[in-house]
Design a protein that fits this description.
Layout: H1 2-22, H2 27-34, H3 38-45, H4 53-63
């Protein structure tokens, strides 16, 4: 199960990056807009950490999307 979780986190991170780039945000800009640390943005996009609900809310707000869009990738 851990391997599947790692794959899921990596898919989430790729999707977050895709959305960020579609909004023309750098990681730094997303960090400033979302009040999520740059290090955390980087770890999320690399699929290293599991985000909290509050982090997801901050990211979605900064990206001007619904939270569910962060999970819009094949599972």
């Amino acid at each position: 199960n851990n391997l599947r979780d790692e794959i899921y986190l990596k898919q989430f991170g790729k999707n977050q990056k895709k959305i960020r780039l579609s909004k023309s945000f750098t990681q730094e800009e997303l960090s400033l807009s979302s009040d999520v640390s740059l290090a955390q943005i980087t770890r999320l996009e690399r699929g290293i950490v599991n985000p909290t609900i509050c982090t997801l809310k901050c990211l979605a707000k900064a990206l001007d999307i619904e939270i569910k869009q962060l999970f819009d990738f094949p599972h």
